[in-house]
Amino acid sequence: MLWSLSWKNVWRNKLRSIVVIIAVTLGVFAAVFLLAFMNGMVESRIQTVIRTELSHIQIHEPGFQENNDFSLRIQNADSIVRVVSQTNHVKAVCKRIVISSLVASAETNTGVKIIGIVPEAERTVTNISTKMIDGAYFEIDQKNSVVIGKKLAEKLKVSLHKKIIITLQDIHMNITSGAFRVVGIYETDNNMYDESTLFVRYNDLCMLTGMSNTEAHEIAIIVDKDENSEPVKKVLQNDFKKLEVQYWMELSPEAGYLVSSMGQYMTIFILIILLALCFGIINTMLMVVLERVKEIGMLMAVGMSKRRVFFMIMLETVYLTITGGMIGLVIGYLISKHLERVGLDLYFWKEAYESIGYSSLIYPKIDLQMVATTTLMVILTGILSAIYPALKALKLNPSEATRTE
Amino acid sequence: MNIIEIKGVTKIYDQKTMPVYALNGIDLTFQEGEFASIVGPSGSGKTTLLNILGGLDDPTEGVVMIDGIDITSLSESKKTLFRMRNIGFVFQSFNLIPVLTVAENIEFIMQLQGISKEIREKRTTELIEAVGLADKRNSRPNKLSGGQQQRVAVARALASKPKFILADEPTANLDSKSAENLLDIMGKLNKEENITFIFSTHDIRVMNKAKRIITIEDGKVIEDALK
To answer: pTM to 2 decimals?
Structure first.
């Protein structure tokens, strides 16, 4: 009885109820969409970190990560690559030389990180080969080829087929340099990475530095699923006790903080939205109670218990909140799912996003746990919003209330 | 048989600052099937007396016995339950639930009591016919005239077969014809159902229909006469 009476009471003042429902719908839609948007942004950044910059797991000599000490080279890199490739869940693996050096063009010079790669293996580990905007990714077997980032090309004022001079220290700590021809230019979503990283062939760098072709500074590994990163890291650390094995969250702590803190930020954000909605709903329901003083007094007079009066007011509030909440959830879910497929291109902020390592093409990502949590929070908001107005109703004196004008 | 007995009922407002005696030592009894009206000028204490009889207010002094139960000693929740089962109310401004139909308004009280659907529907039909609103069964209050709304209110008050009905100025917002009509129906129901009706009123038409007139002035019963 109270369930149907409360539902009918909600529609007493259609306009007011619709306004409240729209407000709740917009609030919940904003919360759901923003959750999905931020989730998508974080996911995109994580994938960039893994697929473009770091890979899932890296192996180094202990201490190499601190200052990229050239002398800290992994010996027998090829046999380690072979063992790693046979480990469960490992999808691809490659070896690299990593050197901090100077690169110069006719116009200027700058500090960079040079990565010496085996292109065929590197292609399976990172996706730089798919980011080419000019030239090719080591398609032709040409000595002293270099692939540089777009931002670096702009800085050095070089284009395809132009020469740059790489200056570095060899294994004897002598300064040496080599001329490399630009065969390809890539562009990722991370301007800082593009400006500071260039790729040459592993063999060319071995020749220039005097390194043995069984050595490497870094072994990069891709696993089958992101969530297998840590378990596989532990297995490999056990296999290679003398080496330092780290997975992407350890290699890039800021990416790890992003994941762990984003959940907290979004919870706070949603709480703020729901709090604002809460006050709006309280205001509306207080008006409802004040308008119905006489009726509530009558209900108490004829024998409706305080518990039932409280429940009736609470039900009306929850109905309002849930109606708006469900509509907002459905709209938010559908729009997010659509954009998850087609992407949301914020091209007008492309430069800004890429300067901090984010793509401007966002694929919002929504999941059912998110939907369930938001639903629960909406219901709780309804219940909490009802408390004060319902208590106000209980304070009414039936004998005075029934005589109100 | 006395269904209501009030002894030494006094109601004082603002006891500490400037005491106002709304009621001052009232002794009254009401029997089953009475059709009584409480009359008096404004501020005489009629509504206060009705509120105390209905358990909506407590006297400062005195005892209110309804069917042998001292309702002043009941807790708030027990009083509410007592009202639901034993007392019917008809208000001056009808106070129907606007989102419910005529039938639903009458059924509502019985639903509060947990009465079965079959019995509710039967009783509702009986009462709708008794008050002459069979053709308005599914209408909402905003589609009814004042007189029709008050008839629904009477039917609602009778729905739970209370021991007595308290009607506070039931004809105040009605035209003459509607008021006459309402009083006829209430008189008829009083006879058929043997339910006590107690009115508080200024309306001479009500006084004419009543079989007992209790006159109150300054919180005291100054006359209690049977017609």
So the answer is: 0.78
Residue A227: Cβ within 10 Å count: 9
DSSP class of A216: B
Q: pLDDT tens, B8-22?
A: 999 988 777 788 888
Q: Which CATH fold topology does B35-55+74-226 show?
A: Rossmann fold (3.40.50)
Q: Is the dihedral of CA A28, A33, A38, A39 positive or negative?
A: positive
**ipTM value for the complex:** 0.88
| Cβ partners under 8 Å of residue B226, min gap 6 | B211, B212
Tell me the two tokens of residue A97: 């030389």
Neighbours of A265 (CB within 10 A): 11
B77 lies within 8 A of chain A by CB: yes
pLDDT digits (tens, 9 = 90+) for B44-87: 888 889 999 999 988 999 999 998 899 999 998 899 999 999 99
Q: From CA B38, how far away is CA B201, in angstroms rounded?
A: 6
In this complex, the residue of A8, A303, A402 whose CB is nearest that of residue B95 is: A402
Of residues A294, A302, A303, nearest to B93 (C-beta)? A294
Chain A CB contacts of B109 below 8 Å: 302-303
d(CA B112, nearest CA chain A) in Å = 7
Q: Do B47 and A303 touch (CB under 8 A)?
A: no
Tell me how far the alpha carbon of residue A217 is from its chain's centroid.
29
CB A80 within 8 A of CB A74: yes
Contact state of B98 with A305 under an 8 Å Cβ cutoff: no
Could you tell me the CA-to-CA distances from B132 to A17, B12, B194, B206 in Å, in that order? 36, 42, 19, 20
Q: Among residues A106, A217, A109, which one has the least CA distance to residue A167?
A: A109
Give all strands (DSSP E) within A32-174, no chain letters: 57-60, 90-104, 109-117, 132-135, 145-149, 163-169
Instruction: Choose among A9, A303, A306: nearest Cβ to B84.
Output: A303
Residue A18 C-beta-side C-alpha neighbours within 13 Å: 3
**Which of B196, B159, B213, B164 has its CA nearest to residue B35?**
B196
Between CA A249 and CA A266 the distance in angstroms is: 20
Instruction: Show residues of chain A in contact with B91, CB under 8 Å.
Output: 298, 402
Contact B99 A8 (CB under 8 A): yes
